[in-house]
Design a protein that fits this description.
Helix content: 10-25%
Order of helices and strands: HEEEHEEE
Number of strands: 6
Largest sheet: 6 strands, mixed
Number of helices: 2
Strand order of the largest sheet: 4-1-2-3-6-5
Shape: elongated
Length: 99
């Protein structure tokens, strides 16, 4: 019986979204401390979630893209990042309405 309860508990916990990656709470914001890590015409960024105080930095995007998405919420799992050296290029996000 104990094994059944522990197994069921682990199943329930593993299905949770602890980092809110599926919630419309993330924002791409400029990161001025990392501006020296990007080329001219690019913006250094952080993906930030102010609800749970989490972030992923060392990202970059072209200036026009960064202006278009600034202040618009998205789901972290919708963010597409080009593989390569840091800072990694954000190629797209899907804007959503806050939950």
């Amino acid at each position: 019986m104990i094994k059944y309860v522990i197994g069921l508990s682990l199943l329930l916990v593993s299905g949770c979204d602890w980092y809110h990656k599926n919630k419309c709470e993330w924002y791409l914001v400029p990161e001025p401390d990392d501006i020296d890590k990007v080329e001219p015409g690019w913006v250094s960024l952080c993906a930030r979630n102010y609800e749970i105080n989490r972030q992923r930095c060392l990202l970059k995007a072209k200036l026009n893209f960064a202006k278009q998405v600034h202040g618009k919420p998205f789901r972290y799992n919708s963010m597409e990042v080009k593989q390569g050296p840091y800072p990694k290029e954000v190629t797209s996000i899907t804007v959503c309405k806050p939950d």
